Amino acid sequence: MVKVQIYVTLKAGVLDPQGSAINNALHTMGYNEVSEVQTGKFIELHMEKTDDVQEKVEEMCHKLLTNPVIEDYTYNMEEVVSS
Amino acid sequence: MVKVQIYVTLKAGVLDPQGSAINNALHTMGYNEVSEVQTGKFIELHMEKTDDVQEKVEEMCHKLLTNPVIEDYTYNMEEVVSS
């Protein structure tokens, strides 16, 4: 089994209204030291380890998990040793 | 300036309908090697470096960025050297 952690963020230049809203809220609450907020998604998959697991993950990201037009993603993978 | 990356996930035992929906969709698409999907949020803050920056981040997480009743969070911080 492998655990895959995928981080999806908006591409540079794409408006992030959720990030702006959080930034405004933090300023209203007095956290004026915050200058920029960006939001994204985090997806964790547990899947069987196969030879083409990396290829599969990229395929899933392109087809379902992300919108490649406006989103970028990075991922890391670690093997889970089941007891 | 510091860049703070916050990962928010649901606590163990809290239902994750979005994760289940992704899991079902992946199975429908033929990715039967996926056994579990968990979703979360990813928030990146850019803020001024102060002595109590860590404390501030935890305070913001508790007050606004996460729901401590059902969500856990982890974060990492790195210094940004502006040119």
From TrEMBL, chains A, B:
Single GO MF annotation: ATP binding
Annotated Gene3D superfamilies: Phosphoribosylformylglycinamidine synthase subunit PurS (3.30.1280.10)
Location in the cell: Cytoplasm
Sorted UniProt keywords: ATP-binding, Cytoplasm, Ligase, Nucleotide-binding, Purine biosynthesis
The protein's Enzyme Commission number: 6.3.5.3
Catalytic activity: N(2)-formyl-N(1)-(5-phospho-beta-D-ribosyl)glycinamide + L-glutamine + ATP + H2O = 2-formamido-N(1)-(5-O-phospho-beta-D-ribosyl)acetamidine + L-glutamate + ADP + phosphate + H(+)
UniProt KW DNA-binding keyword: no
Function comment: Part of the phosphoribosylformylglycinamidine synthase complex involved in the purines biosynthetic pathway. Catalyzes the ATP-dependent conversion of formylglycinamide ribonucleotide (FGAR) and glutamine to yield formylglycinamidine ribonucleotide (FGAM) and glutamate. The FGAM synthase complex is composed of three subunits. PurQ produces an ammonia molecule by converting glutamine to glutamate. PurL transfers the ammonia molecule to FGAR to form FGAM in an ATP-dependent manner.
Family listed: Belongs to the PurS family.
Official protein name in the record: Phosphoribosylformylglycinamidine synthase subunit PurS
Species whose genome carries this gene: Sinobaca qinghaiensis
Lineage: Bacteria, Bacillati, Bacillota, Bacilli, Bacillales
